[in-house]
Design goal:
The structure holds two protein chains of two kinds.
Chain A (H helix, E strand, L loop, with lengths): L1 H35 L9 E5 L6 H17 L2 E4 L11 H10 L3 E4 L8 H9 L3 E5 L10 E4 L3 H16 L3 E7 L5 H17 L3 E8 L4 H14 L3 E6 L2 H12 L8 E4 L3 H9 L5 E4 L2 H16 L10 E3 L5 E3 L5 E3 L4 E4 L9
Parallel strand pairs in A: 1-2, 1-3, 3-4, 4-5, 5-13, 6-7, 6-8, 8-9
Antiparallel strand pairs in A: 10-14, 11-12
Chain B lengths: L1 H10 L4 E2 H4 L2 H6 L2 H19 L6 H26 L7 H17 L4 H25 L4 H20 L9 H6 L12 H17 L2 H11 L1 H6 L4 H27 L10 H11 L11 H20 L4 H25 L17 E2 L2
Antiparallel strand pairs in B: 1-2
The chains are: A alpha/beta, B mainly alpha.
Chain lengths: ~350, ~350
Amino acid sequence: MLFHTTGRRVGAATALALSLALVATGCASSSSPDSTDGASNSGDLTITFLPKNLGNPYFDTSSTGGKAAVEEIGGTFAEVGPAEAAPDSQVPFIQTAAQQGVSALVISANDPTAVGSALKEARDAGTKVVTFDSDTDPEFRDLFVNQADSVGIATVQVDMIAEQIGDKGEIAILSAAANATNQNAWIDLMKEDLAKNHPNIKLVETVYGDDDDQTSFDKTAALLQTHPNLKGIISPTTVGIAAAARYLSTSDKKGEVAVTGLGTPNQMREYVEDGTVTAFALWNPEDLGYLSAFAAAALVDGTITGKEGDTFKAGKLGEFTVGADNTVLLGDPFEFNKDNIGDFDF
Amino acid sequence: MTTIWASAKANSRTKTYADYAKPLWQRYILNTEAAVILGLLVVALVASVMVRNFASDITLYYLLRDVTAILLMALPMTLIILTGDIDLSVASILALSSVTFGILVQNGWPVPAAIVGTLLVGLVCGAINGFLVTVVGLPSLAVTIGTMAAFRGIAQGILGTKAVTSFPVEWTNLTSIKIPGTGIPVLTILVVVLILVFAVLMHFTAFGRGVYAIGLSTEAAAFSGINVERTKMILFLLSGVMASLAGIYLTLKTNTARAENGTGLELTVIAAVLLGGVSIFGGRGSMHGVIAGVLLIGTIESALRLANVTSDVSRIIVGTLLVVSVVSPSFLGWLRGKPKRPTSPGIETQAILTKS
C-alpha cells in the first residue's frame, strides 16, 4: 500500500522533472542560435565587448557604438559582462571569449593587472585584445583606445569658459581631491593655456570638493560668497560640475555665473534645459565604442599590428594613427549643449 | 544522539524508522544529494550537446580554476552550517588575507613565509568569530555580519584603493599549470586532498558526528558529552584558515592583492553549500552533495557564458535552483509519503515511527 503511493508520487515527480528539463532545454536551444552562430565558424569576424559591468548607461552607450561599427564591418557583435565591477569579475568572461575563439575582445578593465593572465591566455589563443576607457598594463593588450588626452581635455574647458564669459573676468576651479593626479595635470595645463591665450581671464581660486556631492555643493556656495565678481566656474569632474550647477540653478547668480567642465548628459540635462549651464564636455562613449570596434577589426584583418605609426580607417570617424605605447586617441572631447543633449542617454 | 538511537532501537523490535524502512535503492536515489549530482550530470550533458565549445578540456580547466576559492571556503562552511551556525565573514577574511599576503610579499618576505603569516591572520579572524560565538555567546549570524564589515574595512584601511601586483612569477604560474596531458590544474590535487580530509572529518570521526548532533539539538549533544563550545570554536578557526588559503590562491591567480577581492563571494559559497543539500537548520547534509553543488553552479555559469547568455539570467537561474533546493527536502519528504518534514532543529531526533 505504502509502496504503491510512493510509486505514483515518484511517477508524478519524474514527469514533472522531465517537463522542466524539456522547458529548460527548449530555452537553451532558442537562445543559442543567434549567439553561438559564427562564433567558431573560422573566417567570420566576431567581436565581443566586455564592459566593466552590465546595466551601466555609460557602457550601454559605448556598446551601441561598438555594435553599429561591427555591423557596418559585417561581423558578429556580442556584449557580455559581470554584474558587479569587482577586480577579477571579468576573468571568467575573458576565458569564455578565448574558448569561443572570438576574433577580438574589446574590454574596459576593472583592474589593470587582475585580468592580465586571463588576457594573456586569450591572446595566446589568437584573440586580439583592445582596451578602451580603462586600460590594463600595456603588456596585456594589443591596443588601447584612449578617450581623450590631457591637453585636449584642458583646452576644451578653457575654450568653453572663455566663450561663455566673453573672454574676460574672474574664474575659479572646482576640482575633486587635492591629490588627484589627473585633475592636477589638467589644472596645470589649463593654467598654462589661460596665461598664454587668455590674458584677461583671471583664475582666482582652486577649491576641492573631493568628488563628494555635498562638499562640492558647499564649496560652490563659498566660492560665490568670497568672490562677488566671479564670472565662471570650471569643474573638471562629473560630481563637481553637477553639484555646482545644482547650487547655481536655485541661486540668484543663475545666468550670471557660467558653469562648465566635464559632466555626463544625464546628470546635467536639467541644468542645460533650465539655462544654468550652456555647454560642458566629455568624450562621446558611443564614438569610443565605435572606434574601438574598428580598431579591433583592423587588428584582426592585419591592417595594423598595434605599433606606433600604423593607420586604419574607422568608418564615419575617419582615419586614425596609432601613437606611442600602442595607443589610439579618440580625439578632442565632445561638447554637449542644448541642441544635442537630447541625443544622449548616459 | 547515539544514545537516543540505541535506546529507541532496544525499546521496540517491532518498530522501525520511516527513513530506514525503504529499500536501499530508494534511500540512495531519493535524496537531495543524488538530485544535485543528477542535475550536474544533466547540465553537463545538455551543455555538451547544445553549447558550442563546451565539451572540451579547457572548459574543465577554467571551471576547476574558477571554483577553487569557492570550494576551499565551502568545506568548513558545510560543517558550520551543519551545526546550525553560519559564517558570513569568509569573503572578508579572504580580502584581509589577500591584502596581508600582498603587503608581506611587497616587504620582501619569501612567499612560503608570507603564506604562513597570512594563514595566521586567517586563524586570528576565525578565533575572533569563534570567541564571540562560543565564549560571549552571541548568534553567529550577528557576529559574522559585524566581522564581515570589520575585516574588509581593515583590509581597505591597510591598502586603500591601491593594489599589490608584484608576486614572483613561479608562484603565480603555480595556479595555472595543468597536470600534463589533462585539463586539470595541478592545484586541484591539493583541493582534492583537502576535500578528503574534510569528508573524513565530517563523516568518519567522532568530531564529525558531534557536528551533526549539535545541529540536530544542541542540548541533546551537550548532554551526550559533546563539547559544543570547543567544536564550534574549531569550526570557526578552520573557516578562517581556509578563507585565508582561498585569499592566497585568488591573489596568486590574479596577481593582484586588493581589498575588493572576493566581494560578495560569501553568498556564492553559502548558496553552493545549501544547493548541495545541507539544511540551513543544521544537522543534515553531506560532503559529496556540497561538492556537486559547487560544481553545478560553476557548470551552469560556464555553459551560459559560452552561450552568450547575460550574467543576470545566470543569476536568476542559480537563484531559482537555490530556492528549489531549499524547498526540495519538504518535497522529497512528501514524495516518500511521510508526514510534513520537520524543519526546526531538534525535532529530527524524535523518532518518527510507523507500522511496518
